[in-house]
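# nightly structure sweep
# worker-07 picked up a monomer target from the shared queue
# config: single-sequence mode, recycle default, output format = structure tokens
# input follows
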Amino acid sequence: MARYKVLKGVAHNIGHSFTSLMNYMNDDYVMGHILRFARETGQDTLTIDFVKGEAGPSELLGAPISEVPSRYVKVFWDLVERHGSDRSLVQDALLTLRFDTAVERPLRTAPESKESPFTCDVQITDTRGAKYQAHFEGWWHPERFNSPKFVNRLRLKVWKWFRTLVPHRSSPG
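# output follows
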């Protein structure tokens, strides 16, 4: 028998997964990509409607994370079933991620990077009208570095490190 009560855990787990360090795509965390897009576009709030399968605004979902909402819609419904509930019991389900891009502070470990605060709220409404909510907040910074200067310094460091591991041979043979 499908249960309502477990929807509280579903709300928590989907929000925790979305804001976690396991949510990585291409060359940065999904949260880092969204923050970068938010700073570039001025759009600071992403919503994912799990029931309708819609997400937006599109300005926050460019490459390489354009497919993340559809992936999370599938994850959401999988969580509903694995927790012992059923999709027929869910009326509405919405994830809202908001960055405060007006606030930035230097990252302690890398002052050249700036982090901004975020909130992530998940609300599931069941067919009886009961609401199940989860709230997350913290600070995030993009880890993707577009600066060629940074990339070249990183390549040089990696090359020097690699050369210490591989014995140098001056002549073939």
